[in-house]
From TrEMBL:
GO terms of molecular function: efflux transmembrane transporter activity
Coiled-coil positions: 408-471
Protein name: RND efflux system, outer membrane lipoprotein, NodT
Predominant location: membrane
Species assigned in the record: Polaribacter irgensii 23-P
Statement: the UniProt record of this protein carries the keyword Transmembrane: yes
UniProt entry keywords in alphabetical sequence: Coiled coil, Lipoprotein, Membrane, Palmitate, Transmembrane, Transmembrane beta strand
Length: 483
């Protein structure tokens, strides 16, 4: 009969416990976790044929064939402060995995304790101790000492996978930080290459200005001779002098830009100002290798920022589950085992001095759960942010590649036309001077021709630079540079 009653009571308590869990579960907000599928991208880039050949897997050492530039990039990957800061963020994320992993395994501690207590005689405890004898009629010691030592353990049973999901989320955050470093490498390498080519451009512009100054100074001497022969006026002389002074002034502006760009490179490679070694010869005739873009779908695998956004989205889904688990009861188990006595010599007397305890707690939020609800809503909002960030990153990547493909094509056409323009203007310089000598052209035509030649030669140098930069940016946009 007693056994049947015990079984019946056990069933009642089990039903009651399940009912409470069901009620608590039904009170949990029912907002569904958003699952973002891989963003659908176009099958091909606009104006490009479908071709899966992709140069993004080319290592940066093979892509940049300038030994000076290669040395700068190698130094930057070691010394750049921002990159090293990101590496420490990665280490922090890795340590977070270890911390999260330890949360769902039991905690075991060792403890030792000693205390002295004196209670008032006219209290319940005092009256009991007054009449309490220890072995062989010994009076209860006063003041009472107590010595303890042993092991204590606590464990939160992760039935809702809250702690395990926290560890998985930490792993994803760590992997996202790794991808963040790879993305920073692509940006750093592209920036160094861009500034390096800008320096070479400035070197060539400075050389062109010097060449043009030589032509203008010869023209100035000619005009002065013409004035002495009364074949022109002082106005022409002064106009030519002003043009020479103008270009001499431009030289200092170019030199200042060279200093600033050298210092920018020095900052990127993590060193104090010094000369930047570079090869500025044959810049105009420098061959530019084409970059195979492949198909847009390959961006999802090759771009570190897209992979990072995808990992952060996965982590945000787990964070929603963690926030939802906070509505459910937590089950804690605590245990103690050790020795306790009021005198150290008694600690060796077992089982008399032995103590042990085992307890289990079930705790669930019931009233005023606003904080938990707010955390759950925040987790859902952050997941939405991660979804939009993922979509934005993919769209940005596609547009960057599309822009650079179009840019490369248009720059090539522009460069070809500027070559013809420069050639035509070079021939017009000699022609304008001959016509001026024979009084068949005004001095203003000579000035204008020289100015147009200078502008055209500077522009073709800038176009060549833009072609190199477009190739670098396309390589970066495809996800190259971190290998």
């Amino acid at each position: 009969m007693n056994k049947s009653l015990k079984i019946l009571n056990t069933r009642k308590y089990s039903v009651l416990f399940v009912s409470i869990l069901t009620i608590l579960y039904s009170c949990v907000p029912g907002k569904a976790i958003i699952r973002a599928e891989s963003k659908i991208v176009p099958e091909q880039y606009k104006g490009q044929i479908i071709d899966t050949v992709n140069d993004v897997t080319v290592k940066w050492k093979d892509f940049f064939k300038d030994s000076n530039l290669e040395g700068l990039i190698h130094t930057a990957l070691t010394n750049n402060q921002e990159l090293n800061i990101m590496l420490q963020h990665m280490n922090i994320a890795q340590n977070e995995i270890q911390a999260k992993k330890g949360e769902y395994v039991p905690y075991v501690n060792i403890y030792l304790g000693a205390e002295v207590e004196k209670v008032g005689e006219y209290t319940r405890n005092g009256a009991i101790e007054k009449n309490l004898n220890i072995r062989e009629g010994r009076a209860f010691p006063e003041p009472l000492k107590n010595f303890t030592g042993g092991l204590s353990a606590s464990w939160e049973i992760d039935i809702w996978k809250k702690l395990r999901n926290g560890k998985k989320a930490a792993v994803l955050e760590y992997l996202a930080s790794v991808e963040g470093i790879q993305f920073m490498k692509t940006q750093l390498i592209a920036e160094i290459a861009s500034v390096y080519y800008e320096l070479i451009t400035l070197d060539n512009q400075l050389e062109i200005i010097d060449q043009n100054l030589s032509i203008q100074q010869n023209a100035l001497r000619m005009v002065k001779l013409q004035k002495e022969a009364a074949r022109t006026t002082q106005l022409a002389v002064r106009r030519f002098e002003a043009e020479v002074l103008k270009n001499q002034s431009n030289k200092y502006q170019v030199r200042q830009k060279i200093v600033e760009n050298e210092n920018k490179i020095n900052f990127l490679v993590g060193r104090y100002p010094q000369a930047v070694l570079r090869n500025s010869n044959d810049f105009i005739t420098k061959a530019i290798d084409s970059v195979a873009a492949g198909i847009p779908l390959q961006l999802l695998e090759n771009r570190p920022d897209i992979r990072r956004a995808e990992l952060e989205l996965s982590a945000s889904k787990l964070n929603v589950k963690i926030a939802k688990a906070n509505f459910y009861p937590t089950i804690d188990i605590k245990a103690n085992m050790g020795l306790e006595a009021f005198k150290t010599t008694f600690l060796k007397n077992t089982p008399e001095s032995l103590l042990y305890a085992l307890a289990g707690d079930v705790v669930s939020p019931l009233i005023n759960r606003n904080g938990i609800k707010a955390a759950y809503k925040n987790a859902n909002s952050k997941q939405l942010q991660a979804v939009f960030e993922y979509e934005k990153t993919i769209l940005t990547a596609y547009l960057e590649v599309s822009n650079q493909l179009s840019n490369i094509k248009n720059l090539q056409k522009s460069f070809e036309l500027k070559e013809k323009q420069v050639q035509a203007l070079k021939e017009s310089i000699d022609l304008s001077i001959q016509l001026f000598k024979s009084a068949k052209a005004e001095y203003t035509e000579v000035l204008l021709t020289q100015r147009e030649v200078l502008d055209a030669r500077l522009e073709i140098i800038e176009t060549k630079r833009d072609q190199l930069l477009a190739n670098v940016k396309l390589y970066q946009s495809l996800g190259g540079g971190w290998r």
